[in-house]
Write a structure and sequence with these properties.
It contains 5 helices and no strands. The protein has 78 residues and is an all-alpha fold. This is ERAP1-like C-terminal domain-containing protein. InterPro entries: ERAP1-like_C_dom.
Length: 78
């Protein structure tokens, strides 16, 4: 759905919704999608990460993802 959305506002809503699942595997896939594809704009990547971190299940996954990918994130966002 994200890739087929016409408006940027709809893409942001879908990105946030993707991060509210309770399944850790889906959240991991969401984080990978947010950061490892060219389909999500850089300014929207932080929105996806923030949405995942507001999820009780996603909070620990976000912390782990941040630690594991720290240098990549610093290089991308400064």
């Amino acid at each position: 759905l994200y890739l087929k959305a016409d408006s940027q506002e709809e893409k942001v809503r879908l990105l946030v919704a993707l991060c509210y699942f309770d399944d850790p595997n889906i959240i991991r896939q969401a984080l990978d999608f947010v950061f490892d594809t060219k389909d999500v704009r850089a300014q929207d990547q932080t929105i996806g990460f923030s949405a995942c971190s507001h999820n009780v299940v996603g909070r620990e996954l976000c912390w782990s993802y941040l630690q594991k990918n720290w240098q990549t994130i610093v290089d991308r966002f400064g």
